[in-house]
Amino acid sequence: MKLEAANLTKSYHQHEVVNIEKVAFGAKGLEGLIGPNGAGKSTLMGLLTRRIAPTSGQIKLDTGQGARSLNPLKSHEVARIGLIKTNQRIQGFDSLTIRDSLRLAASDPKTEGFMSIFAGERDAEDIEERVSRLIEAFPFTDRNGYARSGGEKKLLDILRCLIAEPKLLLMDEPTAGLPDDITRTVMEMVREKVAGGEMRVVVVEHDLPLIWEYCDYVHFLSEGSILFEGAPEEVKANRVVAEKYMGV
Ligand SMILES: Nc1ncnc2c1ncn2[C@@H]1O[C@H](COP(=O)(O)OP(=O)(O)O)[C@@H](O)[C@H]1O
Ligand SMILES: [Mg+2]
After folding, report:
1. CA–CA gap between residue 191 and residue 185 (Å, rounded)
2. Contact partners, residue 179, CB within 8 Å, separation at least 6
3. Is-contact 192 30, C-beta < 8 A?
4. pTM of the model
């Protein structure tokens, strides 16, 4: 699995917010992307998933069948080949129940050419079981109804991404706005899926202890550029990271 960007830039009104010579994600199981507020983390994730058009640069994804340029693709086409991002609110959570949102995400075709018409009864049963298991793992106020609070909607967005079984999932501040115990359950689930080889994950987080605990590799972004990357211990001990981010 390799998601690669080269000479990637994004400017808003002559102001360059991303300028990355080269970066690759997906080599390690669970990777962190950290950096100060306004560093360009969300913009980078938007660029990688084709939700934001770059000013210049190339993005390539290799899911094991050879590298493919993402530049000509739309974000829903990128999703189909297995790269998705949390925080995308495609269909409103107000019109679908929690269960239906998850059913829909679980039954979306993952690869082009797949025809859901062939999904038999056993697949449908399998989907119901996966949906139920996921719902029961969390204390939704109304498990048979709608996501109520902002926190529940945020959680549902993450669960939708997980049940869609992407090959590479980008998570933008998954823990912001969620209670600690839920964050933990989510991260343990993610870790299990990653360890089982089901998917790779890149997570943007300000909660550094969580980054150090869960990530196998960490990229440090500052003012739109990757300034340092390495194992969590290396990033933690790096002077530049400490000066620019941890206020040491
Ligand atoms: N749509 C936009 N229009 C103008 N400026 C933007 C837009 N989106 C982001 N920016 C600016 O780009 C910079 C990086 O933002 P962002 O990617 O959200 O950073 P981060 O996620 O690291 O906090 C910030 O200075 C932000 O104000
Ligand atoms: Mg952000």
Report:
1. 10
2. 151
3. no
4. 0.93
pLDDT of residue 119: 55
Distance (angstroms) between ligand 2 centre and the Cα of 73 equals: 23
The C-alpha atoms of residue 50 and residue 79 are separated, in whole angstroms, by: 10
* Ligand 1 binding pocket includes 114 (Cβ within 6 Å): no
The DSSP symbol for 32 reads E
- Total number of residues shown for the chain: 248
Place of tokens 């018409």: 117
Predicted pLDDT at 93: 66
Helical spans, DSSP H, in 34-142: 41-48, 75-80, 98-107, 121-136
- CA–CA distance, 211 with 214 (Å, rounded to integer): 5
pLDDT at 13 over 50: yes
Instruction: Render pLDDT for 34-84 as a digit per residue (tens, 0 to 9).
Output: 999 999 999 999 999 999 999 999 999 999 889 999 999 999 999 999 999
Tokens at 216, concatenated: 């196998």
| pLDDT at 92 exceeding the cut of 90 | no
169 backbone dihedrals φ, ψ, rounded to 5° = -115, 130
Q: Is the CB of 38 under 6 A from ligand 1?
A: yes
Q: Is 116 in the pocket of ligand 1 (CB under 6 A)?
A: no
Q: Using an 8 Å Cβ cutoff, are 72 and 59 in contact?
A: no
Give the whole-angstrom CA distance, residue 220 versus residue 226: 6
**C-alpha to C-alpha distances, 48 to 19, 73, 81, 117, nearest whole angstrom:** 13, 11, 13, 31
